[in-house]
């Protein structure tokens, strides 16, 4: 089966990821929103190793990744957009918006389905919130997410370039909106009309459950407003809110080894959504 050569795409995505990570780390060090409760060296190794393990798992298990699937869909005529006859600018725009909607739905499901929540709580168990939290996902959740995106691409039939752009945007905005970065209030209000800002997403990492179940968007901020999951600010303010989950407060229990088995050994707490 002929698939798209994505060697250059991998390099492009890696370069964009590394560049954004470095920029966000520098900005949040210069303009922090909150004081750190734990040093970076205590959290960063586990956060970054998990995304590397997840990427290796995806490449080792999935027969096709989203970019390859987009190329195959184009060759075979699969997907809605390959039969719409729309101008390229509309096809690209619809592709990015539709794929972002899929990620929003996926995120809601990880809070609603007990098994998925057990995987996702690894992300929420971080005691601080910074740019590396944006890639702190259990490797199995990374694999499932890649599988969902691949299926969505096969059904939608977006252009290869649009899928590459979406993957770059998704990674970049996740690093941005998890950053411990203080934006001027006017800038935050303007940016969150389109994109999820750090202040908007920080609410989602509150230890208060009704705040955890809000602001699910990763890239576009529209979905939370549209589906009634938007919360403007945390009840205790950004400076006084508690980050994380109430059942995981001991940093000694959040080492890399323990995070990898947390979905099996950890207490899911009063989550997920459907318990309320």
From TrEMBL:
Keyword Membrane recorded: yes
Keywords noted in UniProt: Membrane, Transmembrane, Transmembrane helix
Location, primary (coarse class): membrane
Domain Fatty acid hydroxylase: 94-229
Subcellular locations according to the entry: Membrane
Record carries keyword Membrane: yes
GO biological process: lipid biosynthetic process
Pfam families recorded: FA_hydroxylase
Transmembrane region(s): 12-32, 44-65, 85-105
One MF annotation (Gene Ontology) recorded for this entry: oxidoreductase activity
A GO cellular component annotation in the UniProt record: membrane
Cross-referenced PANTHER family: STEROL DESATURASE
UniProt protein name: Sterol desaturase/sphingolipid hydroxylase, fatty acid hydroxylase superfamily
The organism of origin for this protein: Desulfacinum hydrothermale DSM 13146
